[in-house]
Hints:
51% of the residues lie in helices and 15% in strands. The protein is α+β, with helices and mostly antiparallel strands. It folds into two domains: 6-131, Sufe protein. Chain: A, CATH 3.90.1010; 138-194, BFD-like [2Fe-2S]-binding domain (Arc Repressor Mutant, subunit A). It has a three-stranded antiparallel beta sheet, covered by helices on one side. The longest helix has 25 residues, at 107-131.
Amino acid sequence: MLYYPGRISEHFLAPQNVGDVEDAEASAESGSFTCGAVLRLSLKIDRENQRVVEAGFRASGCGYLIAYASVVTEIIRGLTTADAARAAAILQETLYEYFGVPPKAKEHCILLCEEALREAVAHYSQRVRDEWTGEEALICTCFGISEKRIEQVIADSDLRSVREVTRACNAGGGCGSCQPLIEEMLEEHWRGQQKF
């Protein structure tokens, strides 16, 4: 009989969010050459608020992988897609804190969860870009915010920094790839103001 310690055993025997999410907007798979395990993660996202409303997983692997995937799906529910991407970046510490440090041979299970989560969020961002039908440029793909919207927020509130723009409309608060563009927009706005 297999033995798994404390919380690993709890989540292995009663995992949360098992199965594919119906009408998922994003999904990703990761696999391990080390042991042959496979993890599929699927996400349903509230597009208006860019929040994960449902997360599900399918796994073929050991109890560690199933327990980790169970907890990951619970952690990311309610997060924005940007926060879910940030959660992937610190997943190892988060899972170590909750479960304790795993045996060396099981560390790759966390990497599978990280990879699947990161890829699922990237899949969603790509889908947003592909489906964008706005007439103006899409600047922030993490939150689906257009150039026109950012310009409006800057002008309406006389914003001076990317941080202020992020507080006002979320743009720049995700992966950060749009922050240089937002800085250019801020500079252009304030150059235009100096002419008057």
